[in-house]
Specification:
The complex is a heterodimer of chains A (279) and B (346). Chain A is globular and about 80 Å long. In chain A, strands 1-2 form a two-stranded antiparallel sheet. Chain A is built from 13 helices and two strands, in the order αββαααααααααααα. In chain B, a hairpin with a 2-residue loop joins strand 4 and strand 5. Chain B is elongated. Chain B is built from eight helices and 20 strands. Chain B folds into two domains: 227 residues, 3-Layer(aba) Sandwich (Rossmann fold); 106 residues, OB fold (Dihydrolipoamide Acetyltransferase, E2P) (Beta Barrel). With 346 residues, chain B is an alpha+beta fold. The chains are: A mainly alpha (279), B alpha+beta (346). At the A-B interface, helix 8 and helix 9 of A face strand 6 and helix 2 of B. Chain B: Pfam families: ABC_tran (PF00005), TOBE_2 (PF08402). Chain B: Its EC number is 7.6.2.11. Chain B: It catalyses: ATP + H2O + polyamine-[polyamine-binding protein]Side 1 = ADP + phosphate + polyamineSide 2 + [polyamine-binding protein]Side 1.
């Protein structure tokens, strides 16, 4: 009984701030306004438009760059998580803190910081000039966007993998070595398979924000570079076509849900095992 | 070529300047069942881990069949371990757990199948191939851990308190099974435990350790009947230990009485510890023993009664099938070969 009462506020919260907005977006996506009468009418035009050629290329670009960012985060993050989990407990807490502290700072601020580093008169170019090298364009490139994504989302890859690795029973690794596995084999046959839940949540945690971001691409590439996030932002704030914007949002949501479902399936874990639900 | 399969020479292990194992020498003969016995923290597990290769001795060397393996990583040693917490791989089924070592050796699938099913038969778990590890009971997991180690046909099997987590009845069964396996397969076992009864039941040879040092090496009967010092006497079964004075060979006195005994070589008029096992004390109704005392308490233990006898300022523990009621006066009789003399510890 008490449980029911205690969960009340959360239910209200979910209803007000999650469920109703989603329903509203779904509704907006499915209707348009008749310009003559000013009445809503149901139509699938918004959704059809999402898959038109121009927008399709935005989709592929977004998904592609998000996949790239996720992959780089995984390649960088796994060894980092491994080093963290092997550290002496004395230094480990500090090292993990160092990873988390940047996340306390405003996301925009962090991305702005990269602008001053990468910019035409930024820190990097100043260093190049100092050594008598020609200036280079770092900012306003796809590389800059990728860098921004990796920088911002790397902790989301490192932390779940770190959690899984540091919880792993060292006895299992010893058992593998005892049975004749060298370092490489014990990594391949024991450590890696057992850390899959961490990898899966890391990938989801990076891919989701990477595929939907618009701030990073806005700041580090500028207006002419379109990702899905930018497209949605534009529809709502510039073009003022809430119906088309809503339709894109719904499709994006479906894509994210699908990838999560696939990832969870790939990890092959019972939900009770809990490893994948670190966040 | 000696028949010593493994030999440790002045092996020391320190952690941050604290010695956990202090300059010990040990060896194991082929096909022997050796037990390292001691209380927790005595260094027995560290010793086992040095043999397995998980720890490197701070000083000293370990030899396997005469070859120095001190610096060899665990995966290059022809030794397998049964871990205290089993350490079975949760992401693999039982078949794959047992096949793990064989796959590393790149054995053919056909041979793996034959060996794994033979092992499952040996540990009485046929038909469990596809089961997940967490669906097994503790006893079954224990058997899989043993099978996973034995399937590699190691020359030496290390067992780190493998029965510690099992209940008493299962533990007794597994003790007998392990001993049988060891005899049938002809593999050398090094077994670590803190359970003295387990050690006495299974071993050919026992090393008793305390505080990083070896207290005694010997057969179970040697260790039980002729403990070398008060620690061993106390740790292996229960004992009465009294201060005594060795007048000369075969002549010891304690409690104002001179006893004939079978020990010699302690010098003349030297203070010693006298050890008498509770079951070696014979009680009689009236004062016809060498000493006499009063029964303080009686506890029925099933096979025997455990009685505490107050004799002057000494308290004797006596195990006997004859019961003497509390408060009654009894005679205490000790035969010469039941008196064990030990040097006083420095």
């Amino acid at each position: 009984m008490l449980k029911k009462i205690a969960s009340g506020p959360y239910l209200v919260w979910i209803l007000l701030f999650i469920l109703i907005p989603i329903l509203m977006i779904a509704f907006f996506g499915m209707v348009r306004i008749d310009p003559e009468t000013g009445n809503y009418f149901f139509t699938s035009d918004n959704f059809k438009r999402v898959f038109e050629g121009v927008y399709l290329s935005v989709w592929t670009r977004s998904i592609f760059i998000a996949l790239k960012a996720t992959f780089i985060c995984l390649v960088l993050g796994y060894p980092m998580a491994m080093i963290l989990s092997r550290m002496d407990v004395k230094y480990r807490t500090i090292a993990v803190m160092l990873f988390v502290v940047p996340m306390w700072m405003n996301f925009l601020l962090r991305t702005y910081a990269w602008m001053t580093i990468l910019g035409k008169n930024g820190v990097l170019n100043k260093i190049l000039t100092f050594f008598g090298l020609p200036q280079m364009t770092f900012l306003y490139s796809e590389g800059a966007v990728l860098l921004g994504m990796v920088y911002n989302f790397l902790p989301f890859m490192v932390l779940p993998i770190y959690t899984v690795l540091s919880k792993m029973d060292n006895g299992l690794i010893e058992a593998a070595e005892d049975l004749g596995a060298n370092k490489f084999n014990s990594f391949r046959k024991v450590i890696l398979p057992l850390s899959i839940p961490g990898i899966v949540s890391g990938i989801s945690m990076v891919f989701m924000p990477a595929v939907s971001t618009f701030v990073i691409s806005n700041l580090l590439y500028g207006g002419q570079y379109m990702l899905i996030g930018n497209l949605i932002e534009q529809q709502f704030l510039v073009v003022n076509d809430w119906h088309f914007g809503s339709a894109i949002s719904i499709i994006l949501m479906i894509i994210i849900l699908l990838t999560m479902a696939i990832m969870n399936h790939l990890s092959g874990n019972d939900p009770e095992d809990g490893g994948a639900n670190l966040w | 070529m000696s028949d010593k399969i493994i030999k440790g020479v002045s092996v020391t292990k320190e952690y941050g300047g604290v010695a956990v194992v202090k300059d010990i020498d040990f060896w194991v003969k082929k096909n022997q069942f050796l037990t390292i016995l001691g209380p927790s923290g005595c260094g027995k597990t560290t010793t086992l881990r040095m043999i397995a290769g998980f720890e490197r001795p701070s000083e000293g060397h370990i030899y396997f069949e005469g070859r120095d393996i001190t610096d060899l990583p665990p995966y290059m040693r022809p030794i397998n371990t049964v871990f205290q917490k089993y350490a079975l791989f949760p992401h693999l089924n039982i078949y794959e757990n047992i096949a793990f070592g064989l796959r590393i050796q790149k054995m053919s699938e056909k041979d793996i199948e034959i060996k794994v099913s033979k092992m499952l038969e040996l540990v009485n778990l046929k038909g469990f191939e596809k089961r997940k590890i967490n669906s097994l009971s503790g006893g079954q997991q224990q058997r899989i851990a043993i099978a996973r180690a034995l399937v590699n046909e190691p020359k030496l099997l290390l067992l780190d308190e493998p029965l510690g987590a099992l209940d008493l009845k299962l533990r007794k069964e597994m003790q007998i099974e392990l001993k049988n396996m060891q005899r049938e397969l002809g593999i050398t076992f090094v077994y670590v435990t803190h359970d003295q009864e387990e050690a006495l039941t299974m071993s050919d040879k026992i090393i008793v350790m305390n505080q990083g040092e070896i207290q005694q090496i010997g057969s179970p009967t040697d260790i039980y009947n002729e403990p070398e010092n008060a620690f061993v006497a106390n740790f292996i079964g229960e004992s009465n230990i009294f201060d005594g004075l060795m007048h000369k060979d075969y002549d010891v006195s304690f409690s104002d009485y001179r006893f004939e005994c079978v020990d010699a070589g302690f010098g003349e008029n030297s203070p010693v510890d006298v050890v008498i096992r509770p079951e070696d004390v014979k009680l009689s109704a009236t004062g016809d023993g060498q000493l006499s005392g009063v029964v303080e308490s009686v506890v029925f233990k099933g096979v025997h009664y455990e009685m505490m006898i107050q004799e002057q300022d000494r308290s004797w523990m006596v195990h006997s099938t004859d019961m003497f009621p509390e408060g009654s006066e009894v005679g205490i009789q000790i035969d010469p070969d039941d008196i064990h003399i030990m040097c006083k510890e420095a």
